[in-house]
What does this fold into?
Amino acid sequence: NITTDLVKTKPKQIVMENLNVEGMKQNKFLAKSVSDASMSEIKRQLEYKTKWTGIEFLQVNRFFPSSKLCSNCGEKKVNLSLSDRIYNCESCGFTLDRDHNAAINIRNAAINIRNEVVLPGVTRKNACGVASSGSGFARTKLATMKQERSLKCTI
It folds into this structure.
């Protein structure tokens, strides 16, 4: 099982993109592959297995432009179609496989969360279940009382 194998590597955190699976099923070219992948089941298993093993689980919001951002310079590519499998940045000339580029951007989003950089749409829940959110790149202020936080990223 891929989720068990992933959790057995004991990473500090697992970051997953929150894709619009239902919308992807509407695309006649993606529908069968998306249905076969059982993405919602993979997410469910990762959530409970990371909670059980103490691994941090983060999700990047479906609107975060992971595929459109250059992982080298941060420039956003406006016109990027699904058929573009290689990411070519017009700004810095960086070239990389599109999915690898997106994975680096998702990892970088998780690093920003870990460093408590608040990005647009990030929602955090502390141990008391109180949600707080922020926008821009301001740092969060830590509470005067020690509270464990579980982070749910909706970038």
Remarks:
- Residues 7 and 153 are 19 Å apart (CA to CA).
- Residues 98-114 form the longest helix (17 residues).
- The radius of gyration is 17 Å.
